[in-house]
Amino acid sequence: MKILVINAGSSSIKYQLYNMKDESVLASGRVERIGTESAIVTHEPAAGPGVREVSGILDHVTAVRRVLDLLLHREHGVVASIAEIEAVGHRVVHGGETFKASVLVDDEVKRSIRDLFDLAPLHNPAALMGINAVEQNMPNMPQAVVFDTAFHQTMPRHAYLYPIPMALYRRHKIRRYGFHGTSHFYVSERAAEMIGRPIAELKMITCHIGNGASCTAIQGGKSIDTSMGLTPLEGLMMGTRSGDIDPAVVPFVMSKEELTLGEVNSMLNKHSGMLAISGFSGDMREIVEAMEDGDRNAKLAFDMFCYRLRKYVGAYAAAMNGLDVLVFTAGIGENSAHVRKAVCEGLTFLGVQLDETANQRHSKDARFISAPDSRVKVLVVPTNEELIIARDTFRLVSERKAAGDSPVSRGQ
Question: Which of 170, 274, 355, 384 has the fewest CB neighbours in a 10 Å radius?
């Protein structure tokens, strides 16, 4: 079975086509700047020449049509017919309390995604556009949705509730949801496999740190707490997001600077974090380079980032009454030996001992970076959210077929 995985943004679509027989990627690519006459299309088949072109693509329907044209292309394509693609899987950021697992798309699922627009105004509308675009280009194609929040639905009430009036939770479902769940799930499973122990026996902290960053406490294979909250703004310091701050800062700054709600929201999401402290960038690579050249603000941004991450690791070790495994993933976690070293050097009280040679070694493969005698195993595990989406889509469609039902999405 071949599965097309789509991650739709408001002005972009990323895609991968999987052959589920061996879970190999047949082709991948992206369409950027959707809605303009200068959209950028990149298509990379696993074998053979790729494509990069600029053309007018004014909506997601046209973008998906272009993706399908490239997958079928005589020179650059990887399938002979659309019929070879048996299902499409989508990443959806917010599933609220409605979705605790991945599901096949039907009209009710689409209504539920729409009902959650207020909780993820930048992401859920784009995901729904991607689903509708596939429906228009591939009628009767079964589609599945995999939610970033679903993995965190195992959090206990004392972890996900905020200490605010319960009426706000009952009326508006204001609570911690967490994000990056697909990534945290994948790397935790992969880490347990590498260690050779059942995940049910392990106390693990996974650090998904890129431009967006989150930390999750995983006990017995289940998320029991995570740093992001109602939105992806809470928690760790990030590239351009503030992470945790005193909530009184918001009305204080609005009053002093005469900012609107939209302006202060933009400040916290787009003009804070490492960008605000360094004064020039939210990219950890640029910050480390400037820090090594003596830039004091870059050094401060680096120290704040690592300090706040280390605090979360310590807090989650306390929440689980111990720690067996620490995992780094995503852009910074996979590539910044500086960050991993700074974080681990402050965790020796937990039994973390870093192997400096292993930590400095550059590799795209999952690997151990802890010393052989380290009580806590420390790993770098490249994330693969698209593979989880493909696997869940494959499983759901296969179960539908095995049950004797039509594999097409209900309501279509």
Answer: 170
Among 89, 112, 115, which residue's Cα sits nearest to residue 102? 89
Tell me the average pLDDT of the chain: 93
Provide the sign of the torsion angle of the four alpha carbons 287, 207, 172, 128, taken in this order.
positive
Continuous H helices in 5-123: 60-72, 107-115
Residues β-bridged to residue 275: none
The pLDDT score that the predictor gives to residue 406 is 55
295 Cβ neighbours under 8 A, 6+ residues apart: 278
Tell me: is residue 284 an annotated ligand-binding position: yes
148 is catalytic: yes
Q: Is 7 annotated in some ligand binding site?
A: yes
Phi, psi of 407 (to 5 degrees): -75, -5
Cα–Cα distance between 240 and 67 in angstroms, integer?
31
Check residue 176 and give left, alpha or beta (phi > 0: left; psi -120 to 50: alpha): beta
Beta bridge partners of 225: 217
Number of H helices, E strands in the chain: 15, 14
Render the burial of 203-212: b for 16+ CB within 10 Å, e for the rest: bbbbbbbbbb
Weakest mean pLDDT among 96-100, 122-126, 357-361: 122-126
| Span 24-46, pLDDT tens digits | 999 999 999 999 999 999 999 99
Q: Are 401 and 87 contacting, i.e. CB atoms less than 8 angstroms apart?
A: no
Q: Which is catalytic among the residues 22, 115, 148, 295?
A: 148
- Ligand-binding site membership of 270 (annotated): no
Rounded to 5 degrees, φ, ψ at 397 are -70, -40
Query: In the sheet that 103-104 helps form, which strands lie side by side, from edge to edge?
Result: 51-57, 36-45, 24-32, 12-19, 2-8, 85-92, 143-147, 103-104
